[in-house]
Amino acid sequence: MGKVVLYSSVSVDGFIADENDQPGPLFDWLTSGDVPLDDSGFLKVSQPSHDYTRTYWNQIGVTIAGRHVFDLTDGWDGKPPSNVDHVVVVTHRPPPDNWNPEAPFHFVNGVEAAVAKAQTLAGDRIVEIAAGNVGGQALAAGLVDEVRMDVVPVVLGAGKRFFGPLQSQHLLEDSAEVIHGNRVLHLRYQVRR
């Protein structure tokens, strides 16, 4: 099975969005360079960010997100982000009315069930968990193999935490990778077992 990675862009003080779920400048690094990151023509990053991010994105088979993120993005209009094959949504509610049952989205109750479903769908590819409450729950449950952070030079002061309301200590190994891009520092850590 592929590894499970907790990932997001994050402020220096540990937030992935402000109190109104707005990322503010956290994604500015995605338009701060001259190397296209995807086919949209909109995302352009520095060469180091491209090499790091594109390699990672190409390995992702499934993304796990909470229902809150799903609702905020309007379910990505039924198309998984970044050309990921499937999205597993952690929720206690059914899919929205008029949801296309053919869309590659799977609605699952609980983090453990979500990771199991995602690993089955992903095979040997990466299962990415969006940071925040669901990501923190997965880390607390011992389901995360790696933490990736795109640290942006901004202090938000308050908002949605990278690890959600995590209440316990979890040790990470020394950084496996540190890449400096324009307006971002890409960090990768293995979770200590």
Automatic annotation (TrEMBL):
Superkingdom is: Bacteria
Question: What InterPro entries does its record include?
Answer: DHFR-like_dom_sf, RibDG_C
User: Which residues does the UniProt record annotate as the domain Bacterial bifunctional deaminase-reductase C-terminal?
Assistant: 3-171
Q: Give the protein's recorded name.
A: Dihydrofolate reductase family protein
